[in-house]
Design brief:
Layout (H helix, E strand, L loop, with lengths): L2 H18 L4 H4 L5 H22 L3 H12 L8 H17 L3 H17 L3 H17 L3 H11 L8 H17 L3 H18 L2 H17 L3 H18 L2 H17 L3 H57 L4 H81 L5 H32 L8 E4 H13 L8 E6 L6 E4 L1 H17 L5 E12 L2 E10 L31 H11 L5 E5 L3 E12 L5 H9 L9 E5 L3 H13 L3 E5 L2 H10 L4 E4 L9 H9 L7 E5 L3 H8 L6 E4 L4 H11 L3
Helix pairs in contact: 1-7, 1-9, 3-4, 3-5, 4-5, 4-14, 5-6, 5-7, 6-7, 7-8, 8-9, 9-10, 9-11, 10-11, 11-12, 11-13, 12-13, 13-14, 14-15, 15-16, 15-21, 16-19, 17-18, 18-19, 22-23
Length: about 750
C-alpha cells in the first residue's frame, strides 16, 4: 500500500469527524418552522446512524443508509445534509474499492455545494474528489483539485488548511517536484504546531524530514524523523511510523552509519510484517464488503423490478391470475438470488485461496527477477572482459607504425568485427538496463551537432561492410552548430537507426536529414530522419517492431539482435519523444523523431572537443599500479602505459594490491572489480582508503554500469571506465586524475 494514499486517507476520515459535529450547529442560527423542525430531527437521527456505522467500519451498512439518505427530498435549507451524506457514502465506496461510484458521488456533492454557494461544503467535496484521484494514481489532477480548494478555506479553519497543505506537499514530493512541495510542507508544519495534536504533528514532522532528505540535509532530516516516530507512537499512526523509520534508515546510510541503518531496517521489517498482516485481514474484509455491496445493489435492482411488476398487475383486470404470476416470478427471482449468493460465497472463498497463491508466486517471481539481474551483471563482465583484450590488442597493432600494409587491412577488419560484436553485447545489456532501472537521468552537455552526425554515420558504416551503400548527410541551414543535451543518447539512437538501414539495404542510398521544426524557450525542436531505399518492412510486422521480444522476419539471412529500434524508442521516451516509421516493401524505409534541445549560448563545444581530442598525456616519471587478474588484459593496459612513457607494477589480486600500495608510492591505481578468489576491487579500495585517502583510484572494469555507479561512491573510487573503452577516453581520464 502506498503511504501517500494511506496517510492521506486517514486525514480525510478525521476531517469528516470534525465536520460531523458541526452540521447541526450550522442550522441553529435560523428559525425553523414546525415542519422543518421535524424534518431536521429526522435528518439528525439518520446522520447519527450513518456516522456511527462509518466509524465502526461497517461500510456495507453505511452504503445502505447513504443511498437511502440521498433518495430523500431536500429543500435548500437542508442541502448541507445531502452533501455530508454523500461524503460518507462516497468514502465508504472508496474503502471497498469502488472508485468509479465514489467519484460519481463526490462530483454530485460538489455540484450541489456550488449550487448553494457554500464555500465550506465546496472545500469538503473538492478534497474528497481529490482523494479519489490520489487513490487511482492521477496525482496531477489531485494537485489541481487541492489547489482549487485552498483559497476557499475559511481563515479560522486551521484543520482544513493543514490537511490541504499537507496533502499538496506530500503529492508534490511523490511527483519528485521538491521545490513545488516546499511552501506547502513548511505551511503544514507551522499549522501542525499550532494544532498541538500528535496525529497532525507526526505527519508534519515526517514531511519536513523528507524535504530535508531530498535536500541532502541528512542530520536535520533525522531529527524530524525521530520526532515523527515519537509522535506517531503516541497516536498509533502506523503508516507514518513505517515511513519515518524507512527514511530514518536511509538517512543514516547516506551518512555512512551502516550499522545504525541496519538496526533501523530490522525495526522497519518488523513494522512492515505487522502492517502486512493488518492489510491482509483488511483486504479480506474489503473483499467481503465489496461482495455484500454488490449483493445489496442486486437486491435493490430485484426490488425495483418486482415493484414494476406489481404495478402492472394492479392495472390488469384479472388480479388473482396476475398476482399468481407475480408471486411465481418473485419466487424464481428469490431462488436465483439464493443461487447467486451461494456462487458468490464460493467465489469469495476461491478469491482468498488465489490471493495466497498469488503472494507465493509473487515472491517466487521476485526471486527469479533478482537472479536474472545477477545473471546479466555476470554476463556483462564475462563478455566484456575478453572483448577488452581483442579491441585493445587490435588498437595496439593499428598504432604500430611498422605493421605491413597487408596485415594492417586484416587488423582493421578484425577491429571492426570486434566493435560490431561489442555493439551487439551493449544492445542486449542496454535493453536489460532500460527495462529494470528507474534511473533515467539525462546528461546535459554542450555538443557539436554536425560532428555528432558525421561520427554516427561513420560508425554505422562498419555494421555491415559488404552492403556497399552510399551515405548522405543533409543538415538544414537553420540548424545551429552547438546545442545542450544528452549527446551520448542521441548518438546511440542515430547509430542504431543508421545501422539498421545499412544492414537491410544493398548497394543503395542511406540519408540522414536534420531539419528545424520550430524555435521556442531558447532552443530548437529538431526533426531527425533516416531514409533508405532498402527492402522495407512488411506491414504485418510494423505492430511488433518496438517489442524487443520479437524479431522482424525476412526471407534473407537475419542480422543483429533486433534490439536497436526498441532501445532507441525507449531512450527517446526518456526525452519526451518517440520513433515514427513509414515503410514499403522493396521501396525503402523512413524512420524519424522530433526532439527539443536548448541552444548553447556560449558556443564552446568546438573548443571543448578540440581540447579533448588533442590531449597529450606524457607519463614520464609517473608510476601506475595495474590491478588485474586476466593476463591478456594486463598486457593490453601495460602496453598503453608504456606508449605514454610511464612505469607500472602489476597486482594479480585485490589483497596483493593492498600490500603493494602500503609498501610503494604510486601516482594512479587502475583497479579491476571482479578478481576471484579473495577480495574484489571494491573491498581492496576500502582497505587502501584506510591508510591512503589521496591516491586516485580508477575502476577499469567489465562490471555492468548500473552496479559500478551504485557502489563506487560508497568505496571512495574517483572514476570508472567500462571495458573495452576507447583510447581517447582513457587518455582524458588519466589526464584529469593523475597529478602532473
Amino acid at each position: 500500500m502506498n503511504y501517500f494514499r494511506s496517510a492521506r486517507k486517514q486525514l480525510i476520515l478525521f476531517l469528516i469527524f470534525i465536520c460531523s459535529g458541526q452540521i447541526s450547529n450550522a442550522q441553529e442560527s435560523t428559525e425553523l418552522t414546525a415542519q422543518q423542525t421535524v424534518k431536521k430531527a429526522q435528518l439528525d437521527s439518520l446522520f447519527d446512524d450513518i456516522y456511527l456505522s462509518y466509524y465502526d467500519q461497517n461500510y456495507v451498512q453505511t452504503i445502505q443508509l447513504g443511498e437511502k439518505a440521498l433518495e430523500l427530498d431536500y429543500e435548500e435549507k437542508f442541502q448541507p445534509y445531502y452533501i455530508r451524506f454523500a461524503s460518507y457514502l462516497g468514502n465508504s465506496l472508496l474503502q471497498v474499492g469502488d472508485t468509479v461510484q465514489s467519484k460519481r458521488i463526490f462530483e454530485l456533492a460538489l455540484e450541489k455545494a456550488k449550487q448553494i454557494n457554500d464555500n465550506r461544503e465546496i472545500v469538503g467535496a473538492t478534497v474528497d474528489l481529490a482523494n479519489v484521484y490520489i487513490t487511482t494514481g492521477n496525482l496531477v489532477t489531485a494537485v489541481s483539485k487541492y489547489k482549487a480548494a485552498l483559497p476557499l478555506v475559511e481563515r479560522n479553519d486551521t484543520v482544513m488548511s493543514f490537511i490541504i497543505n499537507n496533502n499538496l506537499g506530500e503529492t508534490y514530493l511523490e511527483l519528485l517536484e521538491v521545490e513545488q512541495s516546499r511552501p506547502y510542507i513548511l505551511k503544514s508544519y507551522e499549522l501542525a504546531r499550532f494544532l498541538n495534536d500528535p496525529a497532525y504533528e507526526s505527519s508534519a514532522e515526517l514531511l519536513a524530514g523528507k524535504l530535508d532528505y531530498f535536500d541532502k540535509k541528512y542530520n536535520d532530516a533525522i531529527n524530524h524523523f525521530k520526532s515523527s516516530i515519537r509522535l506517531a507512537e503516541k497516536s498509533s499512526y502506523k503508516e507514518v511510523l513505517i515511513e519515518a523509520y524507512n527514511y530514518y534508515s536511509q538517512s543514516e546510510a547516506e551518512l555512512g552509519n551502516y550499522q545504525k541503518a541496519y538496526d533501523l531496517k530490522l525495526l522497519l521489517d518488523q513494522l512492515n510484517e505487522e502492517k502486512f498482516e493488518v492489510e491482509r485481514v483488511k483486504a479480506v474484509q474489503n473483499a467481503r464488503a465489496e461482495f455484500e455491496v454488490n449483493e445489496i445493489k442486486r437486491a435493490m435492482d430485484a426490488r425495483l423490478e418486482a415493484e414494476r411488476l406489481n404495478g402492472e398487475i394492479k392495472r390488469e383486470r384479472d388480479r388473482v391470475s396476475l398476482t399468481s404470476i407475480a408471486l411465481a416470478l418473485a419466487a424464481i427471482l428469490i431462488i436465483l438470488l439464493v443461487i447467486g449468493y451461494s456462487q458468490r460465497k464460493k467465489m469469495n472463498k476461491d478469491l482468498l485461496q488465489k490471493n495466497f497463491i498469488y503472494l507465493k508466486e509473487k515472491k517466487k517471481s521476485e526471486g527469479l527477477l533478482a537472479a536474472r539481474n545477477a545473471l546479466f551483471s555476470r554476463i556483462s563482465h564475462e563478455l566484456r572482459t575478453p572483448m577488452y583484450g581483442i579491441v585493445g590488442i587490435s588498437n595496439l597493432l593499428l598504432d604500430d607504425k611498422s605493421l605491413e600494409n597487408k596485415h594492417f587491412e586484416n587488423i582493421t577488419s578484425l577491429k571492426y568485427s570486434a566493435d560490431y560484436l561489442l555493439s551487439l553485447i551493449n544492445n542486449v545489456l542496454e535493453m536489460n538496463k532500460l527495462n529494470r532501472s528507474s534511473n533515467t537521468a539525462l546528461k546535459i552537455q554542450s555538443f557539436n551537432l554536425k560532428e555528432l552526425c558525421f561520427h554516427a554515420v561513420e560508425s554505422a558504416k562498419y555494421i555491415s561492410l559488404e552492403a556497399s551503400n552510399v551515405f548522405k548527410i543533409d543538415l538544414d541551414p537553420e540548424v545551429q552548430q552547438t546545442y545542450l543535451g544528452d549527446s551520448v543518447k542521441l548518438m546511440q539512437v542515430l547509430i542504431n537507426l543508421l545501422g539498421n538501414s545499412n544492414k537491410f539495404t544493398q548497394d543503395g542510398i542511406i540519408e540522414l536529414q536534420v531539419r528545424m521544426k520550430s524555435s521556442s524557450d531558447g532552443g530548437h525542436t529538431l526533426l531527425f530522419k533516416v531514409t533508405d531505399n532498402g527492402k522495407g518492412i512488411p506491414q504485418k510486422k510494423m505492430a511488433s517492431i518496438f517489442d524487443e521480444t520479437k524479431f522482424i522476419e525476412t526471407n534473407e539471412e537475419y542480422e543483429g539482435t533486433g534490439l536497436g529500434i526498441p532501445i532507441s524508442n525507449k531512450i527517446l521516451k526518456m526525452q519526451k519523444s518517440e520513433l515514427h516509421i513509414e515503410s514499403k516493401v522493396n521501396e525503402g524505409t523512413s524512420i524519424y523523431f522530433e526532439i527539443f534541445y536548448k541552444l548553447d549560448q556560449n558556443n564552446h563545444t568546438q573548443q571543448k572537443l578540440d581540447t579533448q581530442n588533442n590531449v597529450n598525456v606524457d607519463l614520464t616519471g609517473k608510476k601506475i599500479l595495474i590491478v588485474e587478474d586476466n593476463k591478456i588484459n594486463q598486457m593490453v593496459t601495460k602496453k598503453i602505459i608504456e606508449s605514454l612513457n610511464g612505469t607500472f607494477d602489476i597486482a594479480s589480486s585485490g589483497m596483493e594490491s593492498v600490500d603493494m600500495v602500503r609498501n610503494n608510492s604510486y601516482d594512479l591505481i587502475l583497479m579491476d572489480i571482479n578478481m576471484p578468489p579473495g577480495i574484489d576491487g571494491f573491498e581492496a579500495t576500502r582497505l587502501i582508503r584506510e591508510f591512503n585517502k589521496d591516491i586516485p583510484i580508477v575502476a577499469l572494469t567489465a562490471v555492468e554500469q548500473i552496479e559500478i555507479e551504485n557502489r563506487m561512491k560508497s568505496f571512495s573510487m574517483n572514476a570508472y571506465l567500462i571495458k573495452p573503452f576507447k583510447k581517447d577516453e582513457f587518455l582524458n581520464l588519466v589526464h584529469s586524475k593523475i597529478k602532473t
